[in-house]
Write the structure tokens for this entry.
Amino acid sequence: DRSELWNALQNLPKDTLKLFSLHFEKGLTHHEIAQETKIPIGTVKTKLRRGLIEARKLLQEFNTKKGIIR
């Protein structure tokens, strides 16, 4: 369920969550996010990439707790 996934991601830093929301929920490109947030595009890309790495770990923990994976 989508809401459960977002709840699992709440442990990410707030700025990363904001970038995730802009990218994955609103569909903005890296360039558009950089313009909207006034963050350099390289920083946007780095934060999204690091956020994805951390999100994978969180989601793996989430799925393990739900019994989806062992």
